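WARN  no MSA supplied for this record, continuing single-sequence
INFO  ligand: 2'-deoxycytidine-5'-monophosphate
INFO  echoing inputs
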Amino acid sequence: MKKIIIAIDGLSSCGKSTMAKQLAKNIEYIYVDTGAMYRAITLYSIQNNLISKGEIINKLELQKALPNISVNFKLNNHSLSPETYLNGINVERKIRSMEVSNNVSHIAKLDFVREEMVRQQQAMGVEKGIVMDGRDIGTTVFPNAELKFFIQASAEVRAKRRYDELVHKKMKADYEEILKNLTERDEIDKNRSISPLRPAKDAIILDNSNLTIEEQDLFLLKKFNEKIASLS
Ligand code: DC
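INFO  complex generated
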């Protein structure tokens, strides 16, 4: 069967990763969480005192270090989900902390960081058969992706989902702080000069505020099957 590239973009915490992961599992494609890549670079920057409280302390140092920072994914044999590794260390849990969330948009708007991440992401898609989620996949990373989704949901629904996820993982969670963080991040992501967050012209827009996980999974699968049928 012909393999395609599926781009899933959208607002923070709207469940993109959950649905992208499930779709990839259903159709046996590779799943790539590009937000995790920006989060890993942010964690590196925090650990090396290159950023603090949203202020970039040493941009030049980060630019110099970037070629030597390795971010990759390995499958967890128990959960069967990919986990993020920073320079060989599993950082899957650490990159989801509020400290990383509060700093990541500032790292993700640096031109040299975006250039390097986009280069790595494009290399991952050379053989197609990939579901990639992020903010600029359908617009910048794979403007020719065969299938593009743009996912949105109300800020309150998204904050509640992130809150439940953190509580479930037994991590520190404060609903008001999460709501503030994700609305601020959306603003920075939408207004940055390079690859701002916006739907690609040919993206299918899905508001999942009132959808169950099963309903959204079925929607994506239906669109995938229609696309494959139209290509054969
Ligand atoms: O999807 P996420 O919340 O894990 O993403 C973390 C941050 O990374 C988000 O605030 C914006 C940024 N990001 C980006 O700029 N481009 C991407 N392709 C993915 C994420």
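The chain has a mean pLDDT of 94.
INFO  checksum written, moving to next record
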